[in-house]
Amino acid sequence: MPHLQPSRRAILAGGLAAAAALPLSARAQGAYPTRPITLIVPFAAGGSTDVVGRLVAQKLSEVLGQQVVVENVVGAGGNVGAARVAKAEPDGYTILMGTVATHALNPLILKRKPYDPVTDFAPVALLAVVPNVLIVNPSLPAKNVQELIALLKADPKKYNYASSGIGTPLHLSGELFKSMAGVQMQHIPYRGSGPALNDVVAGQVPIQFDNLPSASEFIRAGTLRALAVTTKERAPSFPDVPTLAEAGLPNYETYTWNALFAPPGTPRPIVDALNAAARKALADPALVERLKTFSAKVQLSTPEELGEHVKAETAKWTPVVREAGIQAD
Amino acid sequence: MTDLLSNLGLGFAVALSLQNVALCFLGCLVGTLIGVLPGVGPIATIAMLLPITFGLDPVGALIMLAGIYYGAQYGGSTTAILVNIPGEATSVVTTLDGHQMARQGRGGIALGTAAIASFFAGTVATVLIAALGAPLTRLALIFGPAEYFALMVMGLAFAVVLAHGSVLKAVAMILVGILLSSVGTDLETGQERMTFGFAFLTDGVDFSVLAMGLFGIAEILRNLDQSETRDVVRAQIGRLLPGVAELKQATPATLRGTAIGAILGILPGNGAVLGPFASYTIEKKIARDPSRFGRGAIEGVAGPESANNAGAQTAFIPLLTLGIPPNAVMALMVGAMTIHGIVPGPGVMTKNPNLFWGMIASMWIGNLMLLVINLPLVGLWVRLLKVPYRLMFPAILMFCSVGIYSIGSQPTDVMLIGVFGLMGYLLIKFGFEPAPLLLGFVLGKLMEEYLRRSLTLSRGDLMIFLERPISAVLFVIAFAIIAAALLPSMRKSRDEVFTEA
Questions:
Q1: Which of the residues A166, A208, A287 would you substitute to probe the B interface, choosing the one with the greatest number of B C-beta atoms within 10 Å?
Q2: In B313-336, which positions are buried (b, 16+ CB within 10 angstroms) versus exposed (e)?
Q3: d(CA B419, nearest CA chain A) in Å
Q4: Most exposed among B88, B180, B367, B493, judged by the fewest C-beta atoms under 10 Å?
Q5: Which ipTM value was assigned to this complex?
Q6: Nearest chain B Cα to A49, which residue?
Q7: How many domains does chain B have?
Q8: Domain enclosing residue A83, as ranges
Q9: Where are the transmembrane segments (chain B) (predicted)?
């Protein structure tokens, strides 16, 4: 994520700047916000996006001095909630917790597009990234990525891999792995990562791509073997697990991300106020620590960087989606 | 053994703190209330209360949420017995005999039996979770897709045999249920099926929408239709404690129900819903005089009630030991744990022993509280249920609509419960039972998933279902049940049994 590299420095600089600037900018715009803000989480209560959304909303409420209320608008893999924000009043009182699914993958997979991820939103700020991980059942005779690739090449028809569903970042991480490593595996989709983990732990399916948070307890307990994480850098919670790039697939990089979006045409001062509030909220060490417990890393950006990020993600996933042949009606 | 005792000691020390006892009580009370009120289920309630638990410590929060869940099982039985509306999906079977008992003026005994059977089952399930939690997780692990598929087939075979009236109508309802379950995005290909281009159908029909419509709304319509057969029992509630003779009848049923419910509850895939059905079928099959069933047989209350409570609690085993939610409520518990920074999974028992054992101990305390809340408060629940229809119906409709809307914020969900309500009403009028439809719906979705997954794993070879011993045995049982139901002699007696039910 080269376009995001400056943002880590920006966190420090921005955090300080925001701390100083917020009261000023708040005064400058007059009143915003004067009433509660609705944060639409396009996934069901209890999922990882919902958890991030609720944690951030709670902190945003303190920072903005107005309640930020989470509303779960579920359906169509996140599209229903995202479409609702795309069509909402651009007044800053309806905002979206977007993800890699709503703003990169779904628009590529669906032929009938309910919204355009670039033109139908005003990007506000990237919030956090979550690594994915390549895990195998410990009985599989592959101790590292190279051995796994050799195994898959030796018998291209034999092996299956599990993911939390068709068109999810995890399924596509697997497809990207297949195309970059030049190997074959049969994809077995599940309804969510829980049931998939169950079958991989039980040995029904030997290989899985999963979010690091949901898999981490199994890795620690030794019931699953982590071969590599999918991010450019190693995960702080698992310093011994190499990245796929280190393990022989240079340039391999996938991750799940969460970001705030507002409806298109939201006035710039409101977008800036939300961006500043997000920076201030995520500067709270307790919140950062809490996000870290499930391996979500705070990664902030400016509205422009987020806009570029959406375009870059779309460009990155377009060929993978095409090659996987999963375009739906 | 000493390990178990010291672990339980730790659990009770945690659960008996003033704050946790208070939270457990609050959870049980709220749970009973929402269980009594049809339409507002534990899923909607827990989802709505999740944010409030932010301020609590994780153990207390989870104790309260768990209390709501099993409290709702108790409350659901109260409505099932007194109003003939199953407050929860798991109390559907209780309506059959429980409501008849209430009409005969034995409502108090039915409620008392339900509470005592549930308490007994809860106690056994608590001990079971404590003692067998770790080894039992291996049971879930030997179940692969082929075994699950076979289990679902067996479940549907039970549903056919259990259904009222004609086998043909039952099979038809199951098939409609399976058909409804296939609406939505295909899991394997991502293609939309039978959505007719409506965005709100891309995730399929929600279980709670279907259940609320078919049972809640349809029931209201049916009651409006026949204004005088008001089902809230007007007969005396009578004494609450069953007599010696009744206890003698109920005890073996309770024991069997507990065993069945506990085993089915552990299996992921919502086995807990199957427990009461299975228990009722068995009680009826082994009874000396099956014709008593449907006319107020106490075994028909004790068996299913113990089964649903045992199942509700053993459903925590896969959650606490594997981090895998066997049903929607457990999925919300996963969410609650995650919010509090606890990663559900095999690490919980070792990393958060306070939470693991505290929750187990609180379940037993909660069950004791429920016994105390429910029996003396029956009068209050009855008064709540005796509110005139002109006040109660709009209130139930409002609760249903608010509850459904709160889950996904979809106006279309509210419209759909209306559509399914009308459909349920017509089905009742034409003599079709909605229960097999609901079961077909729940199992259909899973069956398709497991069938296709098994076949993908075997690269299309059907032998996978016979090569695996557990799957093969389950198939044999399923076919044996169907064959038995179709045998002319069995069929005759079955028809007698069910036409009277």
A1: A166
A2: bbbbbbbbbbbbbbbbbbbbbbbb
A3: 19
A4: B493
A5: 0.70
A6: B335
A7: 1
A8: 2-129+256-324
A9: 12-37, 43-70, 109-133, 139-160, 167-184, 196-221, 319-343, 355-382, 389-408, 414-444, 465-487
